[in-house]
Amino acid sequence: MAFPTLFPTGAADFNGTRMNAITAGQYFTHLMKYDDGRFARHPCFCFFALNTEMRCCANEMGQVYIIKRHPGEGHLTVDDFHDMIGREGDRASLHGTRQYWLRERNHLITMIDTLGLPTIFTHSAADHQWPELAHLICPEDPEDKQACVKGVIDNPALADWCFYYRIQKFVDAFYLNTLKATDY
């Protein structure tokens, strides 16, 4: 990882030794919420974080696949592994594969057949209209719309967390308490 502006001393590497083991998700969540906001504001770091977390997840899934399906066969080469995947055709547990999405589609169709057609709500972020977000981004002058818009653009993670918090409150108040929804 090469982010000299984010890690000026080179410390805090994910692969470094530490007392307690952490996951990639925990590591990047901590950095994105770092108090000075430099990780959340960086234009490329969030993509690097997502890519690294997805690679770690894929690596763990691959290890679990080998351990569960072929215990004691740690000597397999990459070509052997590709041959096994081609023969077995069980890719439904690997996120993103065609078999995975076909399995998820079948689960959804079964759920609709059992529960009936759903009512779908979508939510969008009116992040330039929220006074709470304006006070977080521009505490000195929350009425300055241009500064607030620039603050949202410069710190999208803060707007995302604010949106998530508002949605959680809305779901609790409206879906659970008013509509008595069970699946959401």
From TrEMBL:
Residues annotated as domain Helitron helicase-like: 27-173
Protein's recorded name: Helitron helicase-like domain-containing protein
Lineage: Eukaryota, Metazoa, Porifera, Demospongiae, Heteroscleromorpha
